[in-house]
Design a protein that fits this description.
This protein has 9 helices and no strands. It is mainly α.
Length: about 260
């Protein structure tokens, strides 16, 4: 029997995708990057002049984005380098609004939530989909990274709001977001929640989840933390990220379709 004429085109589009497959490795590294971005931002802000720290993080993000847009397909180390730089810079942006301009966390959370809603709406109106499985055009990639940056800033502000404004502390905040992130997962598995909605809800919640536990481990005991130090925690998380990304680079376990074919 002749093959489906659409299959060759599907394979071509799949090979052009600029994002990884959503596997357990994706969620592990995503959580590690959210945690690493939080403590690294805090460490750099205390090690360097805050203005210099923000400028360096911004330059790093621009370089990473240029690399990401230059490559024609998903490359693990470039993709996750970009995510790391978004994590660091996004944290700094959220912190600057609070520390530098005195904007309350609840206000910055609302602002980033509105910004994210606008990006989602514009993306959907333009492309008629919010699926990351369709990131194979430049415009969709721009929408994708704008969304990623907004989710990181929103997650940072939300995590700080629950820990500080609501006085939950970092550990309790982490537990809260661990419970919340289970909701879209269970709704997807048990009640058939739309997979795109479930994905983005979980994606948004990984940020305050990882950041809250990272702050709890790294911040001083006087700030409801364990006092291990943001620099030490950042180094450990960076090593773990490098190890996982290196593993994926070798095995390509995050760049295969459901039939096990490599992109």
């Amino acid at each position: 029997m002749p093959g489906n004429p659409a299959q060759p085109m599907q394979r071509v589009l799949h090979a052009m995708r600029k994002v990884p497959e959503i596997t357990v490795y994706f969620w592990i590294i995503k959580l590690l990057t959210t945690a690493m971005g939080e403590v690294t931002s805090d460490y750099l802000a205390h090690l360097l002049d805050p203005v210099v720290a923000v400028a360096l993080a911004g330059i790093g993000l621009v370089i990473a984005l240029i690399l990401q847009f230059l490559v024609r397909r998903y490359v693990a180390w470039i993709y996750w380098l970009t995510i790391v730089m978004v994590a660091v810079f996004g944290t700094m942006v959220a912190d600057v609004l609070h520390v530098g301009f005195g904007i309350p966390y609840i206000v910055s959370t609302a602002l980033f939530l509105v910004a994210l809603a606008i990006i989602f709406a514009t993306w959907y109106i333009s492309e008629k989909t919010l699926s990351i499985h369709s990131i194979y055009t430049r415009r969709r990639e721009i929408f994708y990274w704008a969304t990623v940056m907004a989710t990181f800033a929103l997650g940072t502000a939300t995590g700080d709001m629950t820990a500080s404004t609501l006085n939950l502390g970092y550990f309790a905040s982490g537990v809260l977001f661990a419970v919340l992130i289970a909701v879209p997962a269970l709704a997807y598995w048990l009640f058939g929640l739309n997979e795109i909605v479930a994905f983005w809800l979980a994606y948004i919640l990984t940020r305050p989840l990882g950041a809250s536990f990272a702050d709890w481990i790294g911040r001083p005991q006087g700030m409801s933390g364990l006092g291990l130090g943001t620099g030490s925690v950042s180094l450990i998380l960076t090593i773990l990220i490098i190890a996982f990304v290196g593993y994926l680079t070798v095995t390509h376990k995050d760049s295969k379709d459901s039939k096990g074919e490599q992109q």
